[in-house]
Design a protein that fits this description.
single chain; mainly alpha; globular
Length: about 850
């Protein structure tokens, strides 16, 4: 109504302080609550006027305020304390009495909110203020004559005050109150005070804890109230480190045994707490168990791990009584806690006894019918693997089981440490064969591929992305051929067909790492050609964008010379792309592209880059792309070029790049040696021999950060270690001049490489003292037997044309918003204009 509108209207000319005073005096409750929520801002702006004019009105409003305003005030007072808007003295004078006044509000939620604020204030108040304003009034508020709420508040305040006073004051003034509350007639008060005994024990020291706190805990552990006994048990477990061996063996151990024996007869909530603290209990009491006690405790844990499973039946959930369902939920929590404590139990029994004592329990937890239990054991799987060390082969089958789990939550938990787990499996298992990594685990690759397909088929793309990122560890776990035939084509498929950009980028990066560690040159060149033709020259602009992402990963993972040799020209050719988005993305990438060049060896490539940039500046019609081109030109002009010789300012980067380059050359040498060995012995060179060769040729004096993520360690600096290796290396490189050209299917690669260097790939290798030349025309590049090539990489597979004309061929991504026609678009929003 007009009257209500007039009553709720506030003069716009009022200052913040005046408006706050007016609303607290004459406004509605919602307006007053808004002012109180804004109190920290007013305190920062004008503390003096806020304290003088606004705070008295706040006090008046709180006397009759509802729950919402009270909760808002408690939060605002806490924020003012944390902001340090006023001094502690001023805060104590203005706010402390208001907080203390509302501590015993009839609403429990409001009372707890004010209590939390007070406990934070206690941390910063001086001792004298604490004594006069809080401790002295507490003596009367902790009496039996006060309300239960008042006594509960007193318990929590006492727990906080203990750390603020000296031992003498605590013994004389605080401990009598603590004892009184521990013997309160209400079980809620006894339980609350019991939970504060941990803080009190840490404040009074070991001697007083033994003489005062321990007797109270022993008495409370025998209390008639189950919640009090539970609080006493949990406090004892948390204080185990304080007590000496005698106290543990003579006092605490009997209590724990009694608690465990009675737990199955008591409420299931006690079992939940017991199962959760079991690991800490085993650690704290380790060394004082007799063999019989040790065995009984272990059997108790095993019993908890299968609790509720014996009662499984085929009834429908709708037919089960509610109390039974509630009990089953508690049993699930118990088994979940047992899974959480499993690593601690391995330490308890000693990893050497795992197979005999705990393997069957581990098997049950990995096959538990409930997802939370399997999820928890999947989280612990890496810790279990580390503890087992050389016995890790014992849990190979359980790894496969969890990888094949029907729940993606379990898979997501497992893959967090998948690279470390697989590394332990491949190096720590006693049954692992020297000549073949993970040969004792034949189901690993099918399980990994099935896990990826299951993640891809779900809507949980983050799990899929994480899994693809973790697959980057596979070159250090399984052979190069296994990756090539089982995983590499799948990465291509994801890059070409998946609709989630982070997933596509994860697949692209992992594919680049697979390529980086591929052991066969012919396979490497097939992958490179596929990247260039199907992505860089693809009919869909979306694929060409992914090609630029791939180029960025290539720059990061490979050496500069590798990028210049294979990807430099295909990348800068996209300056002529008909889609503005592609040209725009390329402009952002150009500084990184330029950073791969070395002068004077790559002077011709620099000229081509400059020519492409000039064309963009002169011919670009899209205003958004042109603006980015201009910014990119300024950035390119400011860049300092890297020289062939080492420069001081680029020393570390150049050294890292040389390490990458040397390892790429090492792959070529290893392949040639493998061929020679096959000719001589008819046996292939193993991955172990390659790793040994790589280690033997490392430069021991260099220790540099790795440029590849933790799951894929970066290459190490290598130098030929003997004159024989130097001669062999020279021989391999010189032989490449006499070989024939590539098969026709490598035509584009040859064209790309020939543009990069007319005489071959020139690189200065430290330790050789001369410039070595490596041509692309090596015997190892010749076409393999077609029968051994998968259909995806078959020479007969038609490859896309190098031109990106607007033909009639159909592409999965070339319709709708991702068609092949030129359009104007920005990176943030793709605007199609067919």
């Amino acid at each position: 109504t007009p009257e209500e509108i007039e009553r709720l209207t506030v003069d716009e000319d009022l200052s913040d302080i005046e408006r706050a005073v007016y609303l607290l005096s004459a406004g509605q409750d919602v307006q007053g609550t808004s002012v109180i929520a804004n109190l920290p801002f007013l305190m920062r702006q004008n503390p003096t006027e806020t304290l003088r004019r606004v705070l008295p009105k706040v006090r008046e409003a709180l006397h009759v305020a509802g729950v919402e305003m009270q909760l808002t005030a408690a939060m605002s007072f806490l924020t003012i304390l944390q902001d340090e808007s006023v001094s502690i003295h001023a805060y104590t004078h203005s706010f402390l009495q208001v907080i203390l006044l509302h501590l015993e509000h009839r609403d429990t939620g409001v009372s707890n909110a004010w209590l939390e604020t007070l406990l934070s204030v206690i941390e910063v108040l001086p001792k004298e203020t604490l004594r006069h304003e809080i401790l002295n009034p507490l003596v009367s508020k902790a009496q039996l004559s006060q309300t239960v709420q008042s006594r509960l508040v007193s318990c929590k305040i006492l727990g906080k005050l203990t750390n603020k006073f000296d031992a003498h004051t605590i013994k004389r003034e605080i401990l009598p109150l603590v004892k009184s509350l521990c013997q309160d007639v209400e079980y809620e008060v006894r339980s609350c005070m019991c939970r504060q005994l941990e803080n009190i024990a840490q404040g009074i020291g070991t001697e007083l804890t033994k003489s005062v706190v321990l007797p109270e805990l022993i008495e409370l552990s025998r209390d008639e109230g189950s919640s009090v006994r539970l609080a006493a048990f949990e406090t004892l477990v948390n204080l185990l480190d304080i007590f000496d061996t005698d106290d543990r063996s003579q006092t605490i151990l009997p209590l724990v045994k009694s608690f465990c024996e009675k737990s199955f007869k008591a409420d299931e909530s006690i079992l939940i707490s017991l199962s959760f603290h079991l690991g800490k209990l085993c650690h704290g009491l380790y060394g004082i168990f007799t063999p019989d006690q040790h065995l009984r405790f272990l059997e108790f844990y095993k019993k908890l791990c299968t609790l509720g499973l014996q009662q499984e039946n085929g009834h429908n959930e709708n037919q089960i009584p509610p109390q039974i369902l509630e009990q089953e939920k508690k049993y699930i929590s118990v088994r979940k806690n047992c899974a959480y404590n499993f690593p601690a139990m391995i330490v308890f029994v000693d990893p050497k006894n795992f197979h005999m004592e705990l393997y069957s329990t581990f098997f049950c937890l990995c096959h538990d019918p409930e997802v939370p239990v399997r999820y928890t054991i999947a989280i612990c799987f890496y810790e279990v693997s580390k503890l087992l060390n050389s016995g890790v082969y014992l849990i190979h089958k359980e790894l496969i089981t969890l990888l094949q789990d029907e729940s993606l939550e379990v898979l997501d938990a497992l893959i967090d440490h998948l690279p470390e787990i697989l590394e332990l499996m491949s190096t720590g298992g006693e049954s692992s064969v020297q000549e073949n990594k993970l040969s004792s685990l034949p189901d690993l690759i099918p399980a990994l591929t099935a896990a990826e397909q299951r993640a891809a088929a779900s809507l949980k793309w983050r799990t899929h992305e994480k899994l693809l990122q973790k697959y980057a560890c596979l070159p250090h776990v399984i052979s190069s051929d296994q990756i090539y035939y089982r995983f590499l084509q799948r990465m291509f498929t994801i890059m070409m067909t998946n609709n989630v950009l982070p997933v596509q980028k994860a697949a692209s990066r992992t594919l680049c790492i697979f390529l980086r560690y591929n052991r066969k040159q012919e396979q490497r060149h097939e992958v490179i050609q596929k990247l260039i033709e199907q992505l860089g020259q693809g009919k869909s602009y979306w694929n060409r964008l992914r090609f630029l992402d791939t180029c960025e990963f290539i720059i990061e993972i490979f050496s500069k010379s590798f990028f210049c040799k294979y990807f430099f020209l295909p990348a800068i050719e996209l300056t002529h792309d008909p889609v503005a988005n592609v040209r725009m993305k390329l402009c952002y990438l150009l500084p990184k592209v330029k950073s791969t060049l070395k002068i004077p060896a790559d002077k011709h490539l620099l000229q081509q880059l400059e020519m492409c940039v000039r064309k963009l500046l002169c011919q670009e019609k899209d205003k958004d792309v042109l603006a980015i081109v201009k910014r990119t030109v300024l950035e390119l002009d400011r860049m300092e070029m890297s020289m062939d010789a080492f420069q001081k300012k680029f020393y570390e980067k150049d050294l890292l790049d040389q390490e990458k380059e040397r390892e790429e050359l090492l792959l070529l040498e290893m392949e040639q040696l493998e061929k020679e060995k096959q000719q001589n012995d008819g046996r292939p060179m193993s991955d172990k021999m390659f790793e040994k060769k790589r280690r033997d040729t490392k430069t021991p004096t260099q220790s540099l950060p790795k440029n590849i993520p933790i799951s894929v360690p970066g290459p190490s600096s290598v130098t030929p270690s003997t004159s024989k290796e130097i001669k062999k290396s020279k021989l391999i490189r010189s032989q490449s001049f006499n070989n024939q050209a590539f098969h026709a299917k490598y035509g584009n690669l040859e064209k790309c490489a020939s543009k990069s260097s007319t005489t071959g790939y020139t690189t200065s290798v430290s330790g050789l003292g001369k410039t070595s030349v490596l041509s692309l025309t090596d015997d190892s590049f010749r076409t393999r037997n077609a029968s051994s090539v998968p259909s995806s990489f078959s020479p007969n597979t038609p490859l896309p044309s190098t031109s990106r004309g607007t033909g009639n061929s159909v592409d999965p991504k070339s319709s709708g918003s991702k068609d092949t026609q030129p359009r104007k678009a920005t990176l943030k929003s793709r605007k199609s204009n067919p």
